[in-house]
């Protein structure tokens, strides 16, 4: 990815000197320039910036105001800012650091020092970005079932609490479907556990394809899946359950399980309804409906 720097100073000459100095060491692909805080703020909002060099005294919007405005935006507050200050500006340096700048360079600047300080900030930024990426990955891993790549039970329970509260607050409906593969034990017995996993992944992939982007499809346990359909009444949830039931029986496995077809049973429950007044009772209703579907001969959706 291209690395870019934003240089803010009301003096064209200072900006030109900085660009020339940094170009010599090829630290950046893009050099953006602004003559005051307002111009600079427009630029950072519209293009990604990795580092900012910012003069303090400028017309219209000064450096302090600009730096404090960066801190108010989540997507901008981590961009490192190096202040450009006068040699004697001790109090201004302290004020700038307190506003959120991470370092300063005194003007007239020394080329070697400028380059060295810029390199330090780029290194820190790079480490921070890496940390952010691994945190995101960790979060994703902790929410995901590794076999099916659906959400796991932990995430489902969190989402269920959140969606239930939202539905109660907004007086909208929330449906929950439990899906259980019929006679799945036979698949394992006949083809082995590994092939059983292939079947689980196939059912999960179909489910993922059929839900809307804002629904939550999760692997609840072994061969059981749960779908949370927000703002969905019972009749619509039943329609979805039926569509999914039909789509599952259309899957024909190949390879080691050549010709195998499977079916699922589904239990559907909706909030609000007579017997549902909390998350637990929503789940219980869906579980009872699933039991009814199994008792009724499997390959069925019940409410
Ligand atoms: P029913 O129609 O009543 O649901 O019958 P069933 O055989 O599907 O249900 P049962 O609960 O008796 O068996 C579920 C099986 O799922 C047993 C277990 O070994 C298997 N299982 C659970 N987790 C996994 C998994 O991650 N991979 C594989 N291959 N099998 C699993
Ligand atoms: Mg100035
Ligand atoms: Mg089961
Ligand atoms: Mg069972
Ligand atoms: Mg089963």
Structure summarized in a few sentences:
It catalyses: 2 GTP = 3',3'-c-di-GMP + 2 diphosphate. By secondary structure, this protein is α/β, with parallel strands linked by helices.
Question: How would you portray this structure in words?
Answer:
It catalyses: 2 GTP = 3',3'-c-di-GMP + 2 diphosphate. Helices cover 50% and strands 19% of the residues. The relative contact order is 0.09. The strands form two sheets. The chain has a five-stranded parallel sheet with strand order 2-1-3-4-5, sandwiched between helices. It has a five-stranded mixed sheet with strand order 7-8-6-9-10, sandwiched between helices. The mean pLDDT is 96. α1 links the parallel β1 and β2 (30-34). It is elongated, with a radius of gyration of 29 Å. It is built from ten helices and ten strands. The protein binds 3'-deoxy-guanosine-5'-triphosphate and magnesium ion (MG) (4 copies). One magnesium ion is lined by residues 180, 223-224.
**What is the helical fraction, as a range of percent?**
40-55%
Number of beta-strand segments: 10
How does the major sheet shape up? 5 strands, parallel
Class per helix and strand makeup: alpha/beta
Strand content: 15-25%
The succession of helices and strands, N to C, reads: EHEHEHEHEHHEHHEEHEHE
| Strands ordered across the widest β-sheet | 2-1-3-4-5
First-residue to last-residue Cα separation: 52 Å
Mean model confidence by pLDDT: 96
The geometry reads as elongated
Q: Count of DSSP helices?
A: 10
Give the names of the bound compounds. Answer: 3'-deoxy-guanosine-5'-triphosphate, magnesium ion
The rounded Rg comes to 29 Å
Low-confidence parts: none
EC number: 2.7.7.65
Keywords: Coiled coil, Phosphoprotein
Domain Response regulatory: 4-122
GO molecular function, one term: diguanylate cyclase activity
């Amino acid at each position: 990815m291209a690395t870019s720097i934003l240089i803010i100073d009301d003096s064209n000459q200072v900006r030109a000197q900085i660009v020339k100095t940094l170009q010599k060491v090829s630290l950046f692909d893009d050099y953006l320039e602004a003559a005051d805080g307002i111009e600079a703020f427009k630029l950072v909002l519209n293009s990604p910036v990795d580092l900012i060099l910012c003069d303090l005294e400028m017309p219209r919007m000064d450096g302090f105001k600009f730096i404090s405005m960066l801190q108010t935006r989540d997507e901008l507050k981590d961009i490192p800012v190096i202040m450009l200050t006068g040699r004697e500006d001790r109090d201004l340096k302290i004020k700038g650091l307190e506003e959120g700048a991470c370092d300063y360079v005194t003007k007239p600047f020394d080329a070697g020092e400028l380059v060295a300080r810029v390199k330090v900030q780029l290194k820190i930024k790079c480490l921070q970005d890496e940390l952010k990426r691994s945190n995101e990955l960790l979060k994703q891993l902790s929410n995901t079932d590794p076999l099916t790549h659906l959400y796991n039970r932990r995430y489902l329970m969190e989402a269920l609490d959140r969606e239930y509260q939202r539905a109660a607050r907004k007086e909208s409906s929330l449906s929950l479907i439990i899906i259980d593969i019929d006679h799945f034990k036979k698949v394992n017995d006949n083809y082995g556990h590994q092939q059983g996993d292939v079947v689980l992944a196939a059912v999960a992939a179909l489910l993922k394809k059929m839900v809307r982007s804002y629904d939550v499809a999760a692997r609840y346990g072994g061969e059981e899946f749960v779908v949370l359909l927000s703002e969905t009444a019972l009749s619509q949830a039943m329609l979805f359950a039926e569509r999914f039931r039909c789509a599952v029986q259309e899957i024909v496995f190949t390879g080691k399980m050549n010709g195998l077809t499977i079916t699922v049973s589904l239990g559907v429950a909706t909030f609000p309804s007579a017997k549902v007044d909390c998350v637990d009772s929503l789940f219980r209703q869906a579980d009872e409906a699933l039991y009814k579907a199994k008792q009724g001969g499997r390959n069925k959706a019940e409410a």
